[in-house]
Amino acid sequence: MPQGRPRLPGTEAQRAAARRLQIRENVRAFRRRQRERELSDNQAESTDTVKEWSSSGSSADKSQPVKDEGSSGSSADKSQSVKEESFSGSSTDKSHPASPTPQSISYERPGRQISIRHERENSDSRWSLALPFRIELGPAYTGAFIAAYHYRTSPTPAPGTESASLSSSGDPSVSSRAGSPLSRSTTTSKVPRDRSGDEYTRVELCCYEWSTTVSFQAMCPGAEMLKDALLASSLNLISMEKSDMRLSIAAMQTQTMALRKLREGFDDYIANRDVKKNALLSATVLACSMSELLVNKSWSGYALHLNGVGALIEDAGPNALASRDSRVNFFGYRTAQVPFSFLERRGSFLSRPEWINFPWRDSDPFNRPRDTLLDIAVQIPGQMELYDKTPNRTPNWNRRQLRRLNRIVAQLNEWKTDLFEKYSDSIYTTEAAAWEGLHSEYIKFRDDTVAAAFTLYAGVRIELFSLVRQLAADLNPHDESALLILKGAIREGFKWSRIACQCLEYFFTRERRVMGKVSCLFPLDSAWGTFIELHEMRGANMSLELRWCQMTAERIETVGLPVFRVRHRI
Fold first, then answer.
1. What phi-psi label fits residue 539: left (phi over 0), alpha (psi between -120 and 50 degrees) or beta?
2. Which residues contact residue 518 at a Cβ distance below 8 angstroms, ignoring those fewer than 6 apart?
3. What does DSSP assign to residue 161?
4. What's the rounded Cα separation, in Å, for the pair 445 and 450?
5. Beta strand 441-445 pairing with 124-131
6. What ranges does the record list as Low complexity composition bias (predicted)?
7. DSSP string, 496-527
8. pLDDT at residue 322 in the model
9. Which residue has the higher pLDDT, 324 or 461?
10. Is residue 127 packed enough to be buried (19+ CB in 10 Å), middle (13-18) or exposed (0-12)?
């Protein structure tokens, strides 16, 4: 009888491949057991610290909601908050008045409590978190998902010590961990991690409110579909930056799982009409839309995902926006949807009064410059659709439409005045342009919040005066005064198209930040379309502007983002 193990069937190469596969499986199983063992050990060690920190933190909150600056511990925390640089790119300005009283929010999970201090400074949101435990999302997600959030951890500083700067935007050590397109931390540390029982892990997350909301939603039980969608979009971005096909394949597999769970979630929502799941489904679809944009470079696919989000929100109705998560999700969707409403020249439910004049709006933080601008902008696509669907446009009808648009122009002028008056110093400066060919200087904004709002304002104004030109041209044969309106609209369209082009360089000549770049593509498309109209229909020589727009579109495509449309090639 043969001695030893029987030989595996097949050729020698097949047997070698089978052995290698078995070794890899054994290594994976060993590492998985190690991670599970480490997780259980860390949870056991941190139990006492969690209880002690939670009890002391709750008692301190009850007795003193906002600590005195005389306390050394609070001074360290305050120096961290002041020195950190937010995800939106803005930093604390000493010339501004003191920020309002920070809000204390608690997110509870079974057996754990997260203390979060949310400060609002000059309409920017800053979150300071002290977590007495490691964020564990399971062995399959611990490494990739946390790396996608791009955070750095450090032990709690000793009382009375000066806190080091937490800004990591220029730290080359951070480049080893790629950031998620949906959330990015700005915390860095050069101090080794200390897992002693008397210290807890400090994590700083500084990002947009929608990003913060979906981040915490993904950590909650039952949010597996959102967790998969965020992980897929993060892995897609990392694979693009590192040109790693393995990560790309992993992202595709994770995206497939997220879409499957999303379909199951839709079926359950249709059957049970659970309004509480509406925000989770909407956030998951928005996360999936980012993967569609990053992988397939498809704006049409991205827009289809947005249509799904809009259908969910409209079906639930404005009364469903009762929680902060649902409100943040709604305003995030509206910001992404409005540019496509302009591109398609089609109105939506967003322009109805019940979706603008919410009873809770005055006491809610959703009155930032971009939010108030969108309150005005959502009216314009509906007017475009009305113009396209009215074949018999009489002179009186054109005059009525021009009066309506004139009221919108007045609202936009008031918004711009309020924006400049809100800040004690200038909202932007100019620097020498690196993208030559059209202007010698580009607009450098004070922060990303102002940059996104003002650039969007330029795009909205361009589209508005495009519609004014159409109405004035129709009215001109019947009313000579319409010629003055037409000439004024031409000047306004050209002026703001040039301004929009000056704004673009700010978004693309700094660190890699996908969301800021996406937000400025709509003004570029609007300006490009205006240059073509003036060149082909108004007899103006726009060859310089058209050549610059084509070169800019090529620059944008090199960073992995498609422009909305390549309107013209020279």
1. left
2. 293, 561
3. P
4. 7
5. unpaired
6. 163-180
7. HHHHHHHHHHHHHSSS--HHHHHHTHHHHHHH
8. 84
9. 461
10. buried
431 three-state secondary structure? strand
- Tell me how crowded residue 374 is: count the other CB atoms within 10 A of its CB: 20
Which one, of 72, 37, 49, 30, lies nearest residue 195 by Cα? 49
For the chain, what are the domain ranges? Answer: 76-87+102-168+175-207, 209-343, 368-570
CA proximity to 180, closest of 291, 79, 267, 268 = 291
pLDDT one-digit tens code per residue, 297-306: 778 888 888 8
Q: Is pLDDT above 90 for 402?
A: yes
User: What average pLDDT does this structure show over 448-470?
Assistant: 94
CA-nearest of 129, 113, 117, 106 to 55 is 113
Check if the beta carbon of residue 283 is closer than 8 Å to that of residue 326. Answer: no
Copy the structure tokens of residue 59. 């008692």
Amino acid residing at 115:
S
Size of the chain in residues = 570
- pLDDT over 50 at 14, yes or no: yes
Exposed, middle or buried by CB within 10 Å (0-12, 13-18, 19+), for 416? middle
* Token pair in block for residue 248: 């790309």
Per the DSSP assignment, residues forming a β-bridge with 228 are none
Q: How far is CA 64 from the centre of its chain?
A: 34
What is the residue-wise DSSP string for 229-263?
A: HHHHHHHHHHHHHHT-HHHHHHHHHHHHHHHHHHH
Q: CB of 323 within 8 A of CB of 279?
A: yes
Distance from C-alpha of 174 to C-alpha of 170, rounded to nearest angstrom: 8
List the helix and strand counts (H, then E) for the chain. 17, 7
Kindly tell me the burial class for residue 214, based on how many C-beta atoms sit within 10 Å of its own C-beta (0-12, 13-18, 19 or more): buried
pLDDT at 232 over 60: yes
Query: How far is it, in rounded angstroms, from Cα 495 to Cα 489?
Result: 10
Q: Could you give the CA distance from residue 318 to residue 157 in angstroms, rounded to a whole number?
A: 45
What is the layout of strands, in order, in the sheet containing 103-109?
Answer: 103-109, 112-121, 124-131, 201-205, 153-155
* 501 C-beta neighbours (distance < 10 Å), count: 25
pLDDT for residue 333 is more than 50: yes
Where on the phi/psi map is residue 196: left (φ > 0), alpha (ψ -120 to 50), or beta? beta
How confident is the model over 97-119, as pLDDT tens digits? 333 333 333 333 333 344 444 44
Instruction: Give 3-state DSSP helix, strand, coil % of the chain, rounded to 5.
Output: 60, 10, 30
Which residue from 275, 262, 267, 178 is spatially nearest to 228, judged by alpha carbons? 262
The residue among 167 and 347 whose pLDDT is bigger is 347
| C-alpha dist (Å) from residue 212 to 181, 217, 236, 237, 283 | 12, 9, 20, 18, 12
Beta-carbon contacts of 367 under 8 Å, excluding residues fewer than 6 positions away, are 361
Rounded to two decimals, the pTM is 0.63
Q: Is 120 helix (H, G, I), strand (E, B) or coil?
A: strand
